[in-house]
Amino acid sequence: MLVANPPNFGQAFDLSSLGKPAPTTPAIAVGKVVTKENLASDFVELSMTKPVILLCWTTRAPQSLDTLAILDKLNSEDGGTWELGSIDVDAAPEVASALQARTVPYAVALVGGQPIPLFEEAMTESDIKSVIAKLLTIAAEQGIGDVPEEKLEPEETEALAALEAGDLVKAEDAYKRFLARMPSNPYAKLGLAHTQLQIRIINLDPAQTIAAANSAPLDLESALAAADMEVATGSVEPAFIRLLALIKATSGDERSRVKDRLLELFSLVDPADPRVIKARADLANALF
C-alpha cells in the first residue's frame, strides 16, 4: 500500500479556515466531477477495473488548483490508464468529509473499491508522476490494469544498489541527496526513514534492547532504541504505546525528540492502519 506523508503538511490548506463557498470555479480542466450521488456508482465501481484518483481542492487554495492541473495533464498523457475525479470541497463538503480530507490539496486513490491515501500537500509534477507509477504497480498486482514501466530516480537506484550490497551508510547518503533534490517525494522520505532505522538497530540485540527499556521505561535512549526495534520487527503497537507514555512523562527538548521519533515511525507504517490512526489521536491528546 502506498504510504502517505506524515502530518508535516506545510503546503496544505487547512479546511477549518474555509469560509463561505467561493462563487467562481477554476478555469482549468477538472476531471470528472465527484458528487455524493455518483461517488459509489461512477468511481468506486470503476475502481474495480481501473485505478481512480480523487483530488479535493478549493479555489481558496491556489496550490490545490495547481495540483489539479498537474493531475489533469498527467491523466491525458497516461492515455486513460487511470481515472481522475475532481472534488470541490466548497461544493461537495460531504464528499470531502467521507474521504476524510483534512487539508487541500488531498489526493486519495481507489483500487478495487478500497481507498489508498496518496498525498496531502502540494507536490511537483515529477513527484506526482512517481506516486502515480507506484499506484499503477499496486493496482496491477491486484489484477487491475497493467504494470507501468518503472523509472527510478538516479539516487533511488544508487540507494537500492547500496542496500542490496549491505552498505547502509551509502544508501543513507543517496536517499539524503534524493530528498534534497525532491523534498516532497514520498519515496525519498520513506527510503531515508527506513534506512536510518536500520542503521540505528544494526548493532542491537532485540531481546536485550526491549528488556532494558522495560526495566527503565523513563530512560530516553532505552525507550527510543526499543521502539525502533519493535517497529522493525513488526510490533508497532507496543512501540507507539512506549513512546506515547514517554511523551506524557517528558517536556521541552526531550519531549520534542520523542515526538519526532514517533512521527518518523508513523511514516514507516501504512497510514490507514488502525494502530497508526489511534496512536496519532493519542499523540494529539498528549500534546494538547
TrEMBL record:
Question: From which organism does this entry originate?
Answer: freshwater metagenome
The family database entries (InterPro entries) matched by this protein are listed as: Thioredoxin-like_sf, TPR-like_helical_dom_sf
Q: What is this protein called?
A: Unannotated protein
